[in-house]
Write a structure and sequence with these properties.
Layout (H helix, E strand, L loop, with lengths): L2 H25 L3 H12 L2 H6 L2 E10 L2 E10 L3 E7 L4 E6 L4 E5 L2 E4 L2 H9 L9 H4 L2 E10 L2 E9 L5 E7 L5 E10 L2 E15 L2 E11 L2 E12 L27
Antiparallel strand pairs: 1-2, 1-13, 2-3, 3-4, 4-5, 5-6, 7-8, 8-9, 9-10, 10-11, 11-12, 12-13
Amino acid sequence: MTHRMMMLVGVVLAGLMQAVTAQMVEASPSLETIVQKHLDAQGGAARLKAIKSVTISSTDTYDGKTTTAVNTRVRPNLFRYEANDGTATMVKAFDGKVGWHSKDGAVEMIPADKVAMMKAKGFDDPLVDPAAANVKVELEGQEKLDGATAHVLKLTMPNGDVQRRYIDAQSYREVKRVATWTYEGKTGTKTVAFSDFKTIDGVTMAMKSSYEKDGKWGTYTVTKVELDAPVKTALFSPPAKATDKAAALPASTK
């Protein structure tokens, strides 16, 4: 082989190596890049942080029972979840100071230890600001979901609960989530698949999801989304006749 041909072969090989390296870099973006593109796919971090309130109406069918619900949240941590399964109406709420729940009008206050967790839970998803949420985020690699590549992010919550979020490598939308937790000594797992993404007032979210929990499958459908609609703060406050039954119980039974 002549010296000139050897030089040409070297140039070709160098070009091939650069192309392969570029493909590898493109196929394996950094954790920071994945999170940034994921937030952009939802409308951008600035748009998400600008939301002051959100109200989501939904239907949830699980184990043969359908529940309709309205979930209202207001910055920084106020929330009210009201649901009806056809037999009873249940409400759980937090007004920034106290938490309460009710069933068909019978109201009880939530114990202080659980209220502390409500206060700590922020308005934004942890990926908007993991440091502020005290959530550890790691890139575990990639997996194939129905033939498509997904980046797998592991989120470890302050209490030790773990979520694995699967971010589609093309759209950067979250297409699957596996959550594991421990509550009162028992471990639970829930797997959710997201679909039917729509953009509302500049924010893109999944309108449908299917999930598996305790070996049974359910479907969740968003029927209405309201962003920054007027919300009266009284909605989150406990009724005047609320009873603090939890406070009267010994600590070991709460």
